[in-house]
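hey m, so remember when u said the tokens were messed up on ur end? i reran from scratch. heres the input so u can diff it against urs
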Amino acid sequence: MNFDSYTLTKIAKNDKYTTYDLFFGPNHPGMNGNFGYVLDMVGTEINNVRINAGQLHRGFEKLMERRGWVQNLTLVPRICVMDPDPNEVTYCMAVEKIMNVEIPERAKYLRTITLEMSRLTSLLISIGGAGASLGLYTIMHWTMADRDKVLDMFEWLTGGRVYHIYNIPGGVRRDTPKGFLEKLYETMEYLESRLPDYDSLLFENPIIHKRLKGLGPVTKEEARKTGLSGPNLRASGNALDIRKDAPYAAYSELEFDIITQEEGDAFARALQMRLEYEQAIDLIKQAIKKMPEGDVHANLGNLGMLKVNPGEAYAKVESSKGEFGYYIVSKGEKKPYRVSVRGPSLPAGFLWATKHLPKMKIDDVAVWMGTFGICAPDFDK
């Protein structure tokens, strides 16, 4: 449907009283969190966009510089609520680099499993949200119900459903409960069995193809130049994945390929999420089969009194949204001297919003955000 097809838009081009500002967020149901765009509208068409960040007022980076090393583990998951565990792991990896600590092999596998479980919960929200943004609410109900099954496993392992605080400097807090790995494997097989239903309802739906193909394209070169990472980068044809390029946890022991698309539009990004969801299921099943015995954390003494020797380090992981990186500086005290977080949502939520949203229809904004996997707390960190 072209831009001249809406009567209101036609009238607006000759009538100044039909132009207006539309606040899309922070409380709009299509907004991904406490964040917003102020859209300069001409009828139903977006003429300009202004970023309206700062709704969270959290300032995690400065808060971390005023709290103990282990206390910060309760803060970092909140930098991306939908995919919290990458923040835990990245923070711990940076601390371990400064301290020159090697975590046990079993802890590496448990970190990998929790990272991929977190990826599943995040991608289920994104896949369901993409459908709901186009009026297909059935897929959203399906994915949220299936996500609850993964959250049940998180609760069994960590005691928490959304924020887990399972990773600690030196490894993980505790070993798996009896029967956990067997039940987790069954859960993965169930999620895998659901994929044909997802495909028939959403990804093979002609309406989805019509609405998403050609929407918000990003070329291969543009994706790299503008700092996109993760699924957004790979959906534009860039075969880059931190799990392969700079392996951490147990990823070097697992077999998987880097999945890419070539089109770089909203449909390619949605399809990329679907394929990486299936890949995450396979990685968890591999990790369960290869799980070694042994300790789950190094002996670092009383973590509540942990002092990290002077130094600095940068650690990064591949989250469901892209690269999460932590740069930490220690002066040998009981708290970090400086913390800086590199989140994946900034290029899409800020730069590409100014490139894509003008001339777009209001009904495409929510699904555009959904396919980019924008995580709003990442802006106000």
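this time it looks ok to me. The chain is about 45% helix and 10% strand. if urs says something different then somethings off w ur setup not the seq
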